[in-house]
Amino acid sequence: MGAEGCAISTVGNDDFGMEIIRALEKKHIRNCIEKVEHSTGRVLVELNEGSPSYTITEGVAWDYLPLTQQAVRVVKNADAVCRGTLAQRSPVSRRTIEALLEYASENALLFFDINPR
C-alpha cells in the first residue's frame, strides 16, 4: 500500500530469536529488534474439538523491551504507531512503550491492537 513499516520488538539470544531475525531479513521487513538475555517468547496453542486455547509464556524477551535510540528515531518519524495489549503486560515493556509514545508526532495516528484472549 506504499507505506513503510518497522517492527519494534525483542527476541532472546537463542535459536528461536535468530530464526525470527533471519525470517525478517529474508522477507526484507524493516525492524528494530533487540536481543536480550531472556528466551524468545512463545505462544502454545492446543486444539480441543477444534477450538484453540492459548498459553502465552511469561518472563520472556518481549516482556523486557528496552528503550533504544533506534526505536525512538523510528517512532519520531512514524506517521502511525500501533501498540498491543500483550506487549504491555510486563512493567518493563509497558514503561518502554509509554516512553516511546511520548516521542510520537502530534500528527501521528496512534492505534491500539486489543488482544481479548
The gist of it:
The chain has 117 residues and is α/β, with parallel strands linked by helices.
List keywords for this structure.
single chain; two-stranded antiparallel sheet; two-stranded parallel ribbon; globular; 27% helix; 3 helices; alpha/beta; 117 residues
Layout: helices, strands, pairs:
Blueprint: E1 7-12, H1 15-26, E2 31-36, E3 43-48, E4 51-56, H2 69-76, E5 80-84, H3 91-102, E6 109-113
Parallel strand pairs: 1-2, 5-6
Antiparallel strand pairs: 3-4
Report the end-to-end length measured between terminal Cα atoms.
Answer: 29 Å
Strand/helix succession: EHEEEHEHE
Low-confidence stretches: none
Largest sheet: 2 strands, parallel
In helices, the fraction of residues equals: 25-40%
Separate helix tally: 3
Q: Give the number of DSSP strands.
A: 6
Q: Please state the average pLDDT score.
A: 93
Structural class: alpha/beta
- CA-atom Rg in angstroms: 15 Å
Q: How would you characterize the overall build of this protein?
A:
By secondary structure, the chain is an alpha/beta fold. 27% of the residues lie in helices and 29% in strands. The longest helix is centred in the first third of the chain and has 12 residues, at 15-26. The two termini are 29 Å apart.
